[in-house]
Design goal:
The structure is a single chain. By secondary structure, this protein is an all-beta fold. It is about 0% helix and about 65% strand. It contains no helices and eight strands. It has an eight-stranded antiparallel sheet, with no helix packed on it.
């Protein structure tokens, strides 16, 4: 294993964050329909972007969703997150995060 000049073993740990499997609706927006696929704005992902699918609406306001892609983030988006896509506007969500991938090099 690599060591420092003082003889101490060097260790590098890298973690990526991943969005939880749920998104909590903060604001349901207007004009949405079932099946709309929304893309979360913000953060930095190593792969794909976080997408949320609308699974319930009442008069165009989102009442339920499911997370349909779960990317690894290196920089997390700040909640409440905005979204793009779909037929409506102004929906926001609160997301929670956990460790996605952890690497340790010694």
């Amino acid at each position: 294993a690599p060591t420092t000049a003082g003889g101490v073993q060097a260790v590098l740990s890298v973690d990526t964050m991943t969005a939880a499997t749920t998104a909590v609706i903060q604001a349901g927006g207007t004009g949405y329909t079932n099946g709309d696929v929304l893309t979360v704005v913000g953060g930095t992902t190593a792969t794909i972007t976080l997408q949320i699918t609308v699974t319930g609406v009442s008069a165009g306001v989102i009442t339920s969703v499911s997370v349909t892609s779960n990317p690894a983030y290196t920089v997390l988006p700040t909640s409440p997150v905005s979204v793009t896509g779909g037929t409506g506007s102004s929906a926001t969500f609160n997301l929670t995060y956990g460790i996605g991938t952890s690497f340790t090099y010694a």
